[in-house]
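Our working data are protein records whose layout never changes between entries. Getting from the letters to the tokens is the skill we practise here. To make this concrete, we reproduce a full record directly below:
***
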Amino acid sequence: MAISNSFCRVGIVLALTCGQIAPALADPAAGKTIFDAQNCGSCHAISGPVTAVAVEERSKLKGPPIWFAGSKFKPDWLVAWLQQPTPVRRVNYGSLDEVSNEHPALPAADAEQVVAYLSSLIDPETQTGLISKEALPRRKMFRGEKLFTKKQVCFGCHEYPSKMGDIGGFTGPTMVGAGQRLQGDWVYAFLKDPLHYYPNGRMPVYGEKAYEPYTDEELRLLSQYLSNL
């Protein structure tokens, strides 16, 4: 009887485990089918890098390129977001008009499949393993915040969680919850070369005459700081 009970317990554990990993078995090809059926490609470029367009044409862009989605987003966040999409910026992409574009929501099963597809869209130039996933100690979080708020006034465009609450601008994506949304290695790659990912964006290129450059060590710390928010 003891042996039978042991086998029962093992069976239950295996069943629960299989249930937990089932989402990871989502099919990228099935996700691509759903992506195409929803006509997502009419707003989001899945091939890149994309080219810059004239400033006066940028308001016609409906959504950001996602040809590097697998390098940028954390899958768990993306699955949840696709089911209940909420704007990460308060203006429409490509303009300064108050956000009005509503992103369609997907059922949970479809979201899992689409994320499996999006996770396959990897930028080969994004190196992995450069930015630690470990939590930053308070001293380094403080230094990272100073790089964000003092060396460059990043919160002029990006909202972030300060001791006084969530404060900052709204023309760029919010950094509130960035740690759940963004992969640290991608943040580092983006900060080094923002035009590679968003040639039609307004992100400064640090090191140009108008902006004081970050050292590589500072970029790594800033990337880890943002991926801890």
